[in-house]
Design goal:
Order of helices and strands: EHEHHHEHEHHHHEHHHHHHHH
Number of helices: 17
Strand order of the largest sheet: 2-3-1-4-5
Radius of gyration: 20 Å
Helix content: 40-55%
């Protein structure tokens, strides 16, 4: 099983669909947003990981078999080796029917389950994507000794500009979770008080939240060979090369279907890039768009916060020098 984690509006859906384009994967889109577990900590401390590992394992199994339209029915769709022609047709029929019933019943209803419809004996790599709790990474790792994790990190400017577009269109309502973050021991490692952060603009609070959560995930997973931090911008610049490496990392062979999908994306127009939730966008067209959308003053204010990031993957995403202390030192300061 593979878990893709990252902050919302960081390209995680795009990466998820790149994996979904492989004929031997079962992609599940944010199943933890449909089936929530409030008994598991969103920001587990070091001593809590082992305690909650068994409950997290049960939760992973529950997520693995979530089949609502919002989880299994995110376009575009791709042929799968484990379905065959008949299974593919059944899957499409179930997907369309469930989506129509959900639309008629209202969005508060999750919809009928959509079967994956595998052929007997066929296997597929389960790929779960989550933006709900990036800091649960050590819980997922402790829950399944075979689980691999890809942590996608996008420059905070790109995330904030995307969120602002979504909020302007009434599509997004992000919560920076400032109260919860200042309850973490990690908050003491940054030169900010809760009063200071709450007095700032909303985008500044989002920047602080992005920094603390991605730092915590990177620090908690540092040294784990089943964890790979990946920069969104690197993926955009060389998607074919990066996906070949990621397929190898997860035990998959390079997929012709994925390469054809990437060629399709490269042909997308600027107008296609304007579609908010679509993954059918030119990769290079998304990298620096935020630099044109955020004013220089906004960029400076945001960077004044996130320049205090403490882990190498997060600082690298920001174009900053590596931290003076290693991630192990980051953790040791909390003890």
């Amino acid at each position: 099983m593979l878990m893709i984690i990252g902050s919302g509006r960081s390209g995680t859906t795009w990466l998820g669909k790149l994996f979904d384009s492989h004929p031997d994967t079962v992609y599940l889109h944010e199943p933890d947003a449909v089936k929530r577990r409030h008994d598991l900590p969103k920001f587990p401390c070091e001593g809590e990981v082992e305690y909650y590992a068994e409950a997290a394992a049960d939760y992973l199994e529950e997520l693995k078999f979530t089949r609502t339209p919002g989880v299994i029915g995110v376009p575009p769709f791709f042929p799968k080796n484990y379905r065959g022609l008949l299974g593919g047709a059944l899957h499409k029929t179930a997907r369309v029917t469930s989506k129509a019933l959900r639309k008629a019943a209202g969005r508060n209803w999750a919809g009928l389950p959509v079967p994956v419809a595998p052929r007997r004996g066929a296997k597929g790599l389960y790929v779960l994507k989550s933006v709900s709790a990036v800091c649960r990474a050590p819980l997922w790792a402790a829950a399944d000794p075979n689980l691999k994790i890809i942590h996608l990190i996008r420059h905070v400017g790109g995330r904030i500009a995307s969120l602002e577009r979504g909020m302007s269109a009434g599509l997004m309502n992000p919560d920076p979770q400032i109260d919860e973050l200042f309850e973490l021991p990690e908050s003491e490692l940054y030169p900010f008080t809760k009063k200071d952060i709450l007095s700032r603009r909303f985008m500044d609070r989002i920047a602080y939240s992005w920094m603390v959560q991605n730092d915590k995930a990177a620090a908690d997973m540092a040294g784990n060979d089943r964890y790979v931090p990946l920069l969104y911008e690197d993926l955009c610049r060389a998607p074919a090369d990066k996906m070949a490496r990621l397929f190898a990392y997860t035990g998959l062979e390079t997929s012709v279907q994925t390469m054809l999908f990437l060629k399709q994306l490269q042909r997308q127009s600027a107008q296609d890039n304007a579609r908010y939730h679509s993954v059918l966008k030119s990769p290079l067209g998304s990298i620096d768009r935020w630099r044109r959308e955020l004013s220089l003053d906004e960029q400076d204010t945001i960077m004044d916060i996130v320049r205090h990031a403490r882990t190498e993957p997060v600082r690298k995403a920001l174009g900053l020098e590596p931290p003076k202390a290693e991630a192990g030192a980051f953790q040791s300061q909390l003890r």
